[in-house]
Specification:
Length: about 250
């Protein structure tokens, strides 16, 4: 049997990069997928690629009304919600250390990565609990586990996501909602390829991977595991998918 047969998944930032790879993999494993992304056209493309009745919903994860409406539309369409993947986020070449980083970059990434995850959980967790339980998979980063210089805005946001993952895991275990996170290292999406070219510190990090380059599909496989009942005994964990970077 397919690993997500009978499940409904809501994936933020699902139109591109890791989110797109995850939407395609989850649909292949039997899930009904809602691709929730601020880029409506790309979300439609991803939903078409994913198949299995996947839908696209224009969603801005930094806007509470938008997130609430998108989750409600998913439940209306598919009758339940079992999997919430808070994936929308990412750093930019404007990031730097606490002294030099533009203040607006700090708030941009806090709003998108941390507050976006907060809002997804605020509206997604009750829907999952009402559906009988399921899994939240947040997206953090190896930056939350290491001390990498010149990425202080992003590191702060992703550290917040990792901490929130643990506290929500404890809070919502009685409601049968598991909450885990994936912490990728540099993963070769189109966006990351540009960032690696622009930032020497990220470039050095990307070159130091023990097992070679990480693909969006590598991360999607980890998200699939955390979404499926195969990980039923895991909650509150941050799973590094990092080609050995964090330990070397
Ligand atoms: N690529 C990497 O190397 C890497 C490493 C560690 C962690 N991550 C994390 O993985 C996640 C996905 O990264 P990616 O590289 O696939 O990114 P990406 O830029 O390829 O895709 C991000 C998607 O999010 C969407 N998005 C942007 N703002 C949004 C908003 N306000 N509301 C809804 N959707 C929005 C974009 O339209 C896009 O489709 C991010 O949280 C990122 O921080 C990525």
């Amino acid at each position: 049997m397919a690993r997500l047969e009978g499940k409904v998944a809501f994936i933020t930032g699902g139109a591109a990069g890791i989110g797109r790879a995850t939407a395609i993999l989850m649909a292949r494993e039997g899930a009904r997928v809602a691709v929730a992304d601020i880029d409506a056209r790309a979300a439609e493309e991803t939903a078409a690629l994913a198949g299995n009745g996947a839908i696209a919903i224009r969603t801005d994860v930094t806007d509470e009304a938008s997130v609430a409406a998108a989750i409600a539309a998913t439940v209306r369409q598919f009758g339940a919600l079992h999997i919430l993947h808070n994936n929308a986020g990412g750093s930019t070449p404007q990031d730097s250390n606490v002294v030099d980083a533009p203040i607006e970059e700090f708030w941009r990434v806090i709003r998108l990565d941390l507050f976006g995850t907060f809002l997804g959980c605020r509206h997604g967790i009750p829907a999952i609990a009402r559906s009988g339980g399921g899994a939240v998979i947040n997206m953090t980063s190896n930056m939350a586990l290491m001390g990498v210089p010149s990425r202080d805005c992003y590191t702060a946001a992703k550290g917040g996501v990792a901490a929130l993952t643990r506290s929500m895991a404890v809070e919502f275990a009685p409601a049968r909602v598991r909450v885990n996170a994936v912490a990728p290292s540099a993963t070769m999406t189109e966006r990351l390829k540009k960032l690696v070219q622009a930032n020497p510190a990220v470039n050095r990090l990307a070159a130091s991977h023990l097992l070679g380059t990480i693909t969006p599909e590598d991360i999607a496989s980890a998200v699939l595991y955390l979404a499926s009942d195969e990980s039923r005994a895991m909650t509150g964990q941050v799973m590094a998918v990092d080609s050995g970077v964090t330990i070397s």
